[in-house]
Each structure stands twice: as C-alpha cells, then as structure tokens.
Design goal:
single chain; 527 residues; mainly beta; Complement Module, domain 1; 4-stranded antiparallel beta sheet; 29% strand; PAPPA/PAPPA2; metalloendopeptidase activity
Length: 527
C-alpha cells in the first residue's frame, strides 16, 4: 500500500524514496484540485522529476508557493507488479505537478528454473511474466509433475512446458530415475536377487543360485536399463539334481546315478524286487523296471514298486478262508476242513500268492460242506434275480433291474439310493453266487438299482445326468466342481426321488429330472 499525504486538505504532488527501502507517495496540487481525486498508475516522464541530494546534513526541501497542509491518501498496486523506482536510500525524488502522479510498475520475475537430470529450452533468457520453458528429462529419467503440493502426473511424456505466472512457475517439475523393480524370478531361473543400492536406472542387482542349481558364467550382475527393464543376464543358474533317493522295494540299476550333480533330463533306472511290480502295468505282464528323470526344479520324478497281488479266490469260497496278508505276494490263505479230507488224499486247503501274481493251487470244497442256499429274499422292490442253475453251492443268479435304463450296484450299509454323493463310485453287480457256507454273495439286500449313464460321454459337453463319478463325470466332459449341490439324486423305479427345488410331486418323473438337471439337449460347458 502506497500513502500520499494531503496538505491543508489539498493533495500534495510529491513522490519520494525513503532511506530504509520503503516507499511513500506525496501528492501536491494547486488549490483547485480536489482531495478525493483518484490518480491512475502509469509511467512517469523523466522530464517531470528532479533529484535532490538528501543526507544527514542536508536541509529539508523548500515548499514552492501554493503548497497546502499535507494529509494522506492511499492506493494499492495490482498483484504481480512491483515498483519501477530503484532503491536509492540516499536520495529523494520529488516532483511538483498540478496533476495525478504517474507511477511506473512492471511484472515480477520468476526465480531461476533448475531441474536436475533435465535439459531446458526457454523462449527467452529473461524470466518475466508469461515466459515459457520446455523441460525434457534425460535418458533413463521420467517426469514428475507437481502442482499445489499434489502429484498430478507421473511418468508422462518426454517433455513438459512450464509458464512464469505472477512471479512463480505454474508447475513444479522433477526428473526421477526409471524404477525397474525387483527382478522377476523368471529373469534368472532358480536364482535369488539382492539389490542393496535400489532398483532405479543405473542400479545393479546381483543374483545367487538356489540349491541345488549352480552358477554357469562369471558375471552375476544385472543393470537397470533406461527402458525400465533389467539387462540380459550374462550368467545362468543351471539346475542339477543330487543322487536320486532310494525307492522302497526297488534296486538302483544305473551306477553313475549314485553320484551327485545330474543335469536336467538325466535318467536313472530302477528294478523292483521279486514280488513287486510297477503300478499301472497290466495284470498279465507286470513290469518290474522303470526310469526316473531329473526335472527342471532339481527333483527326480517319483517312482514306486507295489506288491504283486493275486486275484481273489472264486466267490463260492467267500467267507471261508483266512489269509496272512490279503492277496499280496507271499500271503498264505487256507480253508480249514475236517481230517477226513486229508485221509482221502485231497491234501490241505492252503494256497500261496506267488511273485507272478498267481496262486500256488486252488481251494476245494470240504467234504462236510453240503447242501444248497435258500431262495434269495430281502430283495429291493426294483431288483430281480434269475437263477437258472438252482441254489446249489457255486450256483449263480443273474441280477437285473425292472427299469432297463438302470443298473444294479452295491451300496454301503449307511448310504441310501436317494443320498448317493456324486463322488461315490459304487461297484456294479451282475450276479450273486451261493457260497460253500450256504450264503449268497454278495447279499441281495445290499444290491440297488440306480439310473444308468446316458451314451453321451466323451462328446465335449457336460451332460448333467452323467455328472458323477459313477459315469466317470461324463467321460471327462464334466468334473466334480460342476456339481452345484455336491449331491446327485438318482431315480428309482417305484419311489420317486425328492428333487431339489419346489418341483412338487405331481409332475412325471422325467419332467422332474429335467427340471432338476439339464437334459442331454440342455448341456453346460466343461468343469
């Protein structure tokens, strides 16, 4: 705020520069000039001013005729401008004119623009109001633009233009180094990284190979490049496998495999011990030899040898024999008969499971085992048995369901037909046999009829009726995750299932099944 005094109620036209770097405006005028006159601020002509030396011993300026008593009037300079009068603490500038003072003002300059790691291209060497400069970051650096203490842009284009406005630059610009981030684990496989000096442009990270991988090469350093990517490694971590672990019931056949440091892809051969074979091999030709391979993660493929097993003895002997180790190799099974069998030269009723998966002999019916089974009873209402051979020991009865689209199965005692979980794969039953103990095996009371599998398996569509383990999840077209209720409802012959949802009991069974599960025409995608 500039202040101009009035003398005797009249404006005094006087402009002065005080000693202590402060400014005051004195206005003098003739008696006819009103004290309320507003003076515009414009440039003052040099011819209207004169200078007088002012010092400690200098007398005050004399007043010309017509000067009135001084009072003060005030006005403000617009923002962004400053006084044109230079600081001169030892001089007074005084002008006596019968008109308004013309005061010179000019815009304030901006501070010098300095941005590290950048080049500047300015429209002028001066930093006056409206000046523009283009800031371009050097290679490997990105722009960070800030306005009003808030980051408004980050990692933008290669350059930005800033403008001088009211004594300051309209944007705060910085050039920050590109950050590559911690190297990805796939950049150098089987390695761990150490970046002690950061991950920005020009920084270096070292890597070490994780056990059992070994370093191949001399330079284990990576450099953060200008594009934000790590340099290509000049060394690698070569995965090696240690000596393969022992396999139970197998012998290592490859001598070199007893040492460490095996390259990825190396093979080692094993052979199962007598009485053991490779799992998954056919019953007729049981494989005993297998190979294991060193994999890319430094481990060996798994291998195993399982005991050789013999087929169960004929079902007519079910429940009559006892075995030392089930049906596995070297297991002994026997049926205890009366002494009369041995006296008649029929020998002992003992068999052994041999290493080739066959029994050393066969059971015979003991002399005292006579008679026949009673007619099958306790049958489920939808199951029927046909016994063309009668009910004598060893006779078989064929099972069938009244509904030709259903199949006969055995269910555990604690599972009902209506509550079969989708993951349960019941055993199919085609016949029952009369054992030497005069009992039917399997017991007819455990046999049930369930909906069979529709012939749409393996067609790349998930048929809901086949979406269960019993149908191998539609031959692989479905999977366990596609079963929403995690329970599959199976339709029986004479008793309709309680299907999910509000379907009621009046609709026909087929309509209920279609409502609960999409039909073969309404198929869903693979699970």
């Amino acid at each position: 705020m500039l202040t101009a005094p009035l003398r005797n109620g009249k404006p005094e036209l006087r402009q002065g520069l005080k000693v202590h770097n402060t400014y005051s405006l004195l206005q003098d005028s003739n008696p006819g000039l009103s004290a309320s006159t507003d003076c515009p601020v414009i440039n003052v002509a040099a011819s209207t001013a004169f200078f007088t030396k002012a010092g400690p011993s200098s007398p005050p300026l004399s007043q010309p005729p017509g000067i009135r008593e001084r009072n003060a009037v005030s006005f403000a300079l617009p923002s962004g401008v400053r006084r044109a009068i230079r600081k001169a603490p030892s001089y007074h500038l005084v002008a006596f004119l019968p008109s308004c003072v013309h005061f010179a003002c000019e815009a304030a300059d901006c501070p010098e623009l300095a941005v590290e790691n950048a080049s500047l291209n300015c429209s002028s060497s001066d930093r006056y109001h409206g000046a523009r400069c283009t800031v371009s970051c050097r290679t490997g650096y990105v722009l960070q633009i800030q306005r009003d203490d808030e980051l408004i842009k980050s990692q933008v284009g290669p350059s930005v233009t800033v403008t001088c406005s009211e004594g300051k630059w309209n944007k705060q610009v910085a050039c920050e180094p590109v950050d590559c981030g911690v190297p990805d684990q796939h950049h150098v496989y089987a390695a761990s990284f150490s970046c002690l000096k950061g991950t920005t442009f020009g920084s270096k990270c070292s890597f070490q190979c994780r056990h059992p991988a070994q370093l191949r090469g001399n330079n284990s350093l990576l450099t953060c490049m200008e594009d934000g990517l790590w340099s290509f490694p000049e060394a690698l971590c070569e995965l090696m496998c240690l000596a393969p672990p022992p396999v139970p019931n197998a012998d290592l056949q490859t001598a070199r495999c007893r040492e460490n440091k095996h390259k990825v892809g190396s093979f080692c051969k094993y052979k199962c011990k007598p009485g053991y074979h490779v799992p998954g091999s056919s019953r007729k030709s049981k494989k005993r030899a297998f190979k294991t391979q060193c994999t890319q993660d430094g481990s060996w493929q798994e291998g195993a040898c399982v005991p050789v097993t013999c087929d169960p003895p004929p079902p007519k002997f079910h429940g009559l024999y006892q075995c030392t180790n089930g049906f596995q190799f070297n297991s002994e099974c026997r049926i205890k008969c009366e002494d009369s069998d041995a006296a008649q030269g029929r020998g002992s009723n003992i068999i052994h499971c041999r290493k080739d998966g066959t029994w050393s002999g066969s059971f015979h019916v003991c002399q005292e085992m006579q008679g026949q089974c009673s007619a099958p009873d306790q049958l489920n209402s939808n199951l029927k048995l046909q016994c063309p051979e009668g009910y004598a020991i060893g006779s078989e009865c064929v099972t069938s369901c009244l509904d030709h689209n259903s199949e006969s199965i055995i269910l555990p005692v604690n599972v009902s037909v209506r509550d079969i979980p989708h993951w349960l794969n019941p055993t199919r039953v085609e016949r029952v046999v009369c054992t030497a103990g005069l009992k039917w095996y399997p017991h007819p009371a455990l046999i049930h009829c369930v909906k069979g599998c529709e012939p749409f398996m393996g067609d790349n569509y998930c048929d809901a009726i086949n979406n269960r383990a019993f149908c191998n999840y539609d031959g692989g077209d479905c999977c366990a995750s596609t079963v929403k209720t995690k329970k599959f409802w199976l339709e029986t012959i004479h008793r309709e299932p309680r299907l999910p949802g509000n379907l009621g009991w009046g609709a026909p069974p087929l309509a209920k099944m279609k409502a609960a599960f999409p039909s073969s025409k309404d198929r869903v995608g693979n699970g």
